[in-house]
Specification:
By secondary structure, this protein is α/β, with parallel strands linked by helices. It folds into two domains: 231 residues, P-loop containing nucleotide triphosphate hydrolases (Rossmann fold), CATH 3.40.50.300; 228 residues, Rossmann fold, CATH 3.40.50. The chain has 16 helices and 19 strands. Helix 3 crosses helix 4 and helix 9 runs parallel beside helix 11.
Length: 481
């Protein structure tokens, strides 16, 4: 059992508490959904329950062991596993096989046990033929699966998952959540799932909702799912629309010809001729590991192709899949103004503040370190940073990950405004509802090749095509019925 008693938490340099008087009793037989808006304290609470963070006040016990006692840390690590919101934060070895073996090795499992668990994980997560591949070469979704697999090889009694399906395609989400259900029911593993998704909440036994660092609900899913605070979890999100008018334009903004790229022979991307028009809103979709991020990085000229060329005539900015990769200064406002300052954009400060406010970052956060923010808040700062440079072309890689409904709605409105200003937006995402809200054209990538390029209505209205490309989303498809 995990018990928290009057837990409070604040960062050393802050006067404000992120968590306030959190008292919980969590049994290993429970499957819990931990929900709340961006910045409500979900991830922090998960890290405290796992014994990774030590509370500023109160205490946490895992099977009667207090987490603030250093002598208990090893035993607690054996009982509670944590899958981070950004899987790169916990991947440390140089191959998939070594990553899977690292945990049980350090917990002194026998050689036979380690080999058995590694082989099982390689097979279940489809890594068997890639066991020697470096994790850095994996896509975001594949890294998420590897991080979870590395926790499962350690036989923990509790698993805390921080938005585990965010980087996964529809098939990967279904498989992962099915396995978690089986793990919970058959092995009596306690599950704490930090999530924004309604289906994951409804699959839980218990829901804990945080707001401003306090528990405002603790009960069954049916008692919370239709409340105003969780409006963003409705079946048909209100930001879904397909009526945005886009002016036709023949001016070419980006063109890629005979594009070739590969990762040490493990993955190859091949694009013969791809054109994006000025002011065109485009969505790029595909299964986990299909090449979406690679294509965006090539188009944004962050990586060099092996062959071919890319023509891009105007200023462009790229939003990374992991936002903290592009945050590096002392404060939020320094990060957002770094780009325009170095591009000699005049009068950049007030527009930067306005962008932050629009995206939901309050003024009291401007002087905070961006690394003290939640991942959702970091993503908003990352978006603000690229918008502040006034690009004509925006490459967005999974821009809605970790954002709550209100934040996604705001981002949709920002995108629509940019389109009205004839900016070109090229967004890669598993969030089809988001893409449906503003994109007019959808490109589907499979195994590094374009297999569909056309109007979104042709794709999203066809259940056959959606299932063929492993994209089926009932909510989006029903919009066109």
């Amino acid at each position: 059992m995990i018990i928290s008693e009057n837990v409070c938490y604040k960062y050393d340099d802050s006067q404000n508490y992120i968590l306030k008087n959190i008292s919980l009793r969590i049994n290993p037989t429970e499957r819990i959904a931990l929900v709340g808006n961006n910045g409500s304290g979900k991830t922090t609470l998960g890290l405290i329950l796992a014994g990774i963070f030590i509370p500023s006040g109160g205490k946490v016990l895992v099977n009667s062991l207090e987490t603030d006692q250093e002598t208990n840390r090893f035993d607690i690590r054996k009982m509670v596993g944590f899958v981070f919101q950004n899987p790169e934060n916990q991947i440390i070895t140089t191959s998939i096989e070594n990553e899977l073996a690292f945990g049980p090795e350090n917990l002194a499992f026998s050689s036979n046990e380690i080999n058995e668990k590694v082989e099982w994980a390689l097979n279940f997560f489809n890594f068997m033929n890639r066991r020697n591949v470096m994790p850095v070469q994996l896509s975001g979704g594949e890294k998420e699966l590897l991080a979870l697999a590395s926790i499962l090889t350690m036989d923990t009694k509790f698993i805390i998952l921080d938005e585990p399906t965010s980087y996964l395609d529809w098939s990967g989400k279904s498989k992962l959540m099915g396995f978690i259900e089986e793990l919970h029911k058959r092995n009596n593993v306690g599950i704490i799932n930090i999530t924004q998704k309604k289906d994951e909440i409804l699959d839980s036994d218990r829901v804990i909702q945080l707001k401003d660092g306090e528990i405002i609900y603790d009960g069954v899913p049916e008692g919370i799912i239709d409340t105003p605070d969780l409006k963003y979890l409705s079946d048909k999100a209100t930001y879904t629309t397909h009526n945005l008018e886009v002016e036709q334009n023949e001016d070419i903004a980006v063109r890629a010809r005979n594009l070739r790229f590969n990762y040490d022979g493990e993955f190859s991307l091949n694009i013969d001729d791809l054109v994006f028009r000025k002011g065109e809103p485009v969505g790029i979709v595909g299964s986990t590991g299909s090449g979406k991020t690679t294509l965006l990085q090539l188009l944004g000229q962050l990586v060099e192709p092996i062959d071919g060329n890319i023509e891009i005539k105007e200023r462009n900015s790229v939003l990374f899949q992991f936002p903290e990769k592009q945050l590096f200064t002392r404060t939020v406002i320094d990060d957002v103004t770094f780009g325009p300052k170095n591009l000699d954009i005049e009068n950049y400060l007030e527009p930067a503040k306005e962008i932050l406010n629009t995206l939901g970052i309050p003024e009291q956060y401007f002087e905070r370190s961006p690394f003290t923010l939640s991942l959702g808040e970091q993503r908003k700062v990352g978006i603000a940073s690229i918008l502040a440079t006034k690009p004509e072309i925006l490459f967005l890689d999974e821009p809605t990950i970790s954002l709550d409904y209100r934040s996604i709605s705001t981002l949709v409105n920002v995108c629509k405004k940019l389109i009205e200003e004839r900016k070109t937006i090229i967004a890669a995402s598993h969030d089809l509802e988001f893409l449906n809200s503003f994109a007019k054209r959808i490109i589907v990538i499979q195994n590094g090749k374009i297999v569909f390029d056309g109007k979104k209505s042709l794709l999203f209205s066809s259940e056959g095509l959606m299932r063929k490309f492993n994209l089926y989303n009932k909510v989006v498809t029903e919009v066109y019925i």
